[in-house]
Amino acid sequence: MHSVFLRYLDEVARQKSIRKAARVLNVSSTSVNRKIINIENSLGTKLFDRSPEGVELTSSGEIVLEHCRKTIYDFNQVKTIIDDIRDLRTGHLSIQTLDSIIFGVLPTIFDRFSNQHPGISLSITTSAPEEISHAVAAGEIDMGINFTNDLYPGVRVVAEKAAPFGIIMRPDHPLAERSSLNIDDLKGYPLVRTLDARGRNSILDQEIEAFTLSLSTHVFTNALTVAKQAILANQGVGVYTKIGFLEEIEKGELKFVPLAIKALSEYKIGLIISTSQGIDPVKRLFIASVKRVFHSLSFEV
């Protein structure tokens, strides 16, 4: 009903005549006039001054007309986007992601996205957080899945999910029954950490460098599969998000205990794109898939 009024008001304003507008709209002039009068009564003000020569917009009518035309324009834009998505058959996306995402999250996204849009191909690479953000900002890749706490210049977040850091360990570990842990609780227990921790560049070192000096690391690796095997073999505990260990945690093979450290408990992951690029239909479809998967998963306790 509202959309009918938008078209009626717009055309009457163009024609400066209810009779001429009705002819263009292929409806009766009585229908057009009645609709406008109903809206005027609802708003409590006249939209047109009527005379034998035709109609003229009032000040209130000009305001309403501006709203109507913007609404019509926005609606037509939405229709265009929907038509593009409906008619989409092929396309390609290049995506760069964190190593952990390819285990518990990306397979689910792929499954849903590929089943719905089999004609769209994907190329996937893994990289470090800084490199992902740089590649997205520079337009070297279409999209990235990365930590989003400190946004890199030139990127924006289009989907986001809380992903706090905690301690990954075997369920028979002495700390496994704790509800949360502090760094002091880890003293005496060897850690499994990312390889760049040696260079003091890991997220753990960036956020709580003063605390990590007293910790002992047994395994350094840049491969999550190696870290996972080391933790399963009881060679240490890992400081990670749940993301790369979802399957093992669900099976009861590993346990996740949150870290009671504000800097690490507020981490998020997100889908990022360049601020200099628009969201085309292919990207829009992938964003929708990521949002649905993010909504269905919990990376917290």
Write a structural description:
The structure is a single chain. The chain is an alpha/beta fold and 301 residues long. 45% of the residues lie in helices and 21% in strands. The chain is built from 12 helices and 12 strands. Strand 1 and strand 2 (54-57) form a beta hairpin. The longest helix is centred in the first third of the chain and has 29 residues, at 59-87. The chain is elongated, with a radius of gyration of 29 Å.
Brief sketch in words of this structure:
By secondary structure, this protein is of the alpha/beta class. 45% of the residues lie in helices and 21% in strands. The longest helix is centred in the first third of the chain and has 29 residues, at 59-87.
SSE inventory with pairings:
Layout: H1 2-15, H2 18-25, H3 29-43, E1 48-51, E2 54-57, H4 59-87, E3 91-97, H5 101-104, H6 106-116, E4 120-126, H7 129-137, E5 143-147, E6 155-162, E7 166-169, E8 191-194, H8 203-212, E9 217-221, H9 224-232, E10 237-240, H10 246-251, E11 255-258, H11 262-265, E12 268-274, H12 281-296
Parallel strand pairs: 3-4, 3-5, 8-9, 8-10
Antiparallel strand pairs: 1-2, 5-12, 6-12, 7-10, 7-11
Helix pairs in contact: 1-2, 1-4, 2-3, 4-12, 6-12
